[in-house]
Specification:
The protein starts with a helix and ends with a helix. Helix content is 76%, strand content 0%. By secondary structure, the protein is an all-alpha fold.
């Protein structure tokens, strides 16, 4: 009799767990931000605050790599595109976004655009971004928009002093130069905003790849 009762209790518990899992999956599909880390660098509009909050509820208990990555990217986009008007608010939002990105990367680390997202947030906060930027190179290829954004992050931060990153960044610069008609004004803007080391990286790479563009950069 006791065995039958135990079997029934176990069966009920399993049924409840399956129902909870199905409910969370349905809720996840409903609130999952359709915003990826690569969208952050291609001009996509981040989701509304209400959906971001709803996604955060599920992200806090989820181990779904895609959900966590999309939520983290949406949080980062909110920080970069809709920053708080107060310095303290910007700092706390940046920290929260960084924490969301780190959580997502712990579950699913092979996400180069998300590593760049972390580096971009760290650079914005005045923190060391070099390790995260390097991981963005080592974990896979990225679309051209992400590659150019990585050039901007590298050349405007201390990452431009890292010898390995300097070698890796040359491929991003060459990719942007291959689409010069689109990226020329953006590369010039990146050069103007670059650190001295970042300027040297751009000049050294363009001197070999595109001497004419190198002459244009030297005017700024």
């Amino acid at each position: 009799m006791n065995r039958m009762l135990l079997v029934r209790v176990v069966g009920i518990c399993i049924a409840i767990l399956l129902a909870l899992h199905a409910g969370m999956a349905f809720y996840g599909d409903f609130v999952r931000p359709e915003f990826r880390a690569s969208d952050l660098f291609s001009g996509e509009i981040p989701p509304e605050k209400a959906k971001l909050v709803a996604g955060g509820v599920l992200a806090s208990v989820s181990l779904d790599g895609d959900l966590l990555a999309n939520y983290a990217a949406a949080m980062a986009a909110d920080v970069l595109h809709r920053p708080s008007s107060e310095a303290s608010g910007r700092a706390s939002e940046n920290k929260a976004a960084q924490a969301a990105v780190v959580t997502a990367l712990k579950v699913s680390p092979i996400r180069p655009a998300l590593w760049l997202t972390l580096g971009t947030l760290q650079a914005l906060a005045g923190e060391a971004a070099t390790p995260a930027v390097k991981m963005s190179y080592l974990t896979g290829s990225v679309p051209i928009d992400v590659a150019f954004s990585r050039v901007r992050t590298v050349t405007s931060s201390a990452a431009a002093t890292d010898e390995e990153i300097k070698l890796l960044a040359q491929s991003d610069i060459r990719a942007a130069l291959a689409n010069r008609s689109r990226y020329e004004p953006l590369l010039i803007a990146a050069y103007v905003q670059a650190t001295p080391q970042g300027k040297s990286l751009l000049l050294d790479t363009t001197k070999i790849t595109d001497p004419k563009f190198n002459e244009i950069l030297r005017r700024y």
